[in-house]
Design brief:
Number of domains: 2
Number of helices: 7
Structural class: alpha+beta
Distance between the termini: 40 Å
Mean pLDDT: 85
Radius of gyration: 20 Å
Helix content: 40-55%
Strand content: 5-15%
């Protein structure tokens, strides 16, 4: 592994560049003392929208005042970072939002089917990310049209 990407802190009021570190998925280097120390020194969690990553070769896009840290990536991680940083068309993004809506539209029915198959309420909440109260309400048939969590 070599320095295949750069982590940087996006200055406030600056257009979004690269990808949020959290959006890329887990990276092996994210748990190293160097990265953890860098994040700690700047007082930001890895999940912050201001912690950005950009593939090597694109560092000219990083604002001059931005704090940066070169990091090594595996080949698979490099592909994920490049994909996350690639510009997406409005059409692709709208399509993804429509797919999400279609997936979540009948969530109460999914909860009922899961309960009928014997999956406990806490496990359904854990797997779906739904608020446990929403799962209970769906089981009682008193759920609202949209989950709260």
């Amino acid at each position: 592994m070599a320095d295949d990407a750069l982590l940087f802190l996006l200055p406030e009021r600056h257009p979004r560049l690269g990808a949020a570190l959290a959006a890329v998925g887990e990276l092996e280097c994210a748990e190293t003392p160097a990265v953890l120390g860098w994040l700690h020194a700047h007082g930001v969690p890895a999940s912050s929208e201001y912690v950005r990553i950009i593939p090597a070769g694109a560092e000219v896009l990083i604002p001059a005042e931005a704090e940066r840290l070169p990091i090594p990536l595996s080949e698979e991680e490099t592909v994920r970072v490049e994909h996350a940083c690639a510009p997406r068309s409005v059409t692709e993004m709208e399509s993804e939002l429509l797919n999400f809506r279609d997936t979540t539209q009948d969530w109460a029915s999914l909860v009922h089917r899961a309960l009928a198959s014997g999956i406990p309420t806490p496990r359904i909440a854990e797997l779906t990310g739904l608020d446990p109260q929403d799962v209970v309400q769906a089981a009682d048939g008193s759920s609202a049209a949209e989950p709260t969590g």
